[in-house]
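pls design
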């Protein structure tokens, strides 16, 4: 929705106006649900968006794809990949915590007409089982489930629409997560000097995906 709005505008758009329009479509939108401190941080995480400032007001516009230069420092280690993924909020939290939240998400049977209610119910369930799990961690995990294509709406008893998280095997869940991370690294490689190595990416994976399969995905 943000990209569509920026494409339709010949000039940079006030970031606050963008958020207002987002909330008109998705009333429960909150950048903190995605792990960002501010809406500007949320916009900045998208390479297609450029942020400019006029006084104290932030404006957003479509950015021209940046090309890595010869002077860029090449990123070629697992730790460097990890730092870059974290910068763009594209790396899942601790694997054990993510698995716990997913297991609770697929067993949650409460009627939740919208994602906001589902997140609240999911946090209550997770926090009861493990008080160390924070609301931010649950919100980030749920957003990750959305990106993974696991969140959908179905009819509950009485014909009421309710939000649900699709149940797949844990093996498939972790593999899907790893493929998303690899896809993000490939995307970042278009604007950063990345030298993707299967053996280094393997250190970041949560599943049993092999180095040979990673090589096929990254074209090594």
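designed seq:
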């Amino acid at each position: 929705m943000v990209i569509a709005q920026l494409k339709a505008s010949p000039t940079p758009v006030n970031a606050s106006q963008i958020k207002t329009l987002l909330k008109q479509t998705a009333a429960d939108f909150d950048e903190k649900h995605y792990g960002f401190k501010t809406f500007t941080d949320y916009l900045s995480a998208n390479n297609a968006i450029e942020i400019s400032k006029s006084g104290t007001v932030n404006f957003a516009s479509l950015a021209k794809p940046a090309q890595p230069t010869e002077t860029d420092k090449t990123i070629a280690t697992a730790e460097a990949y990890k730092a870059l993924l974290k910068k763009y909020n594209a790396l899942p939290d601790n694997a054990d915590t993510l698995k716990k939240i997913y297991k609770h998400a697929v067993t949650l049977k409460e009627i939740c007409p919208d994602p906001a209610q589902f997140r609240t119910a999911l946090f209550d369930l997770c926090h009861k089982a493990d008080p160390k799990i924070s609301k931010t961690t649950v919100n980030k995990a749920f957003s990750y489930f959305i990106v993974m294509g696991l969140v959908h709406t179905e009819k509950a008893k009485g014909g009421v629409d309710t939000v649900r998280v699709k149940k797949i095997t844990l093996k498939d869940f972790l593999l899907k997560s790893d493929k998303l991370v690899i896809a993000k690294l490939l995307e970042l490689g278009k604007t950063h000097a990345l030298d993707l190595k299967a053996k280094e990416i393997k250190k970041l994976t949560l599943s049993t995906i092999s180095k040979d399969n990673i090589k096929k995905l990254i074209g090594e």
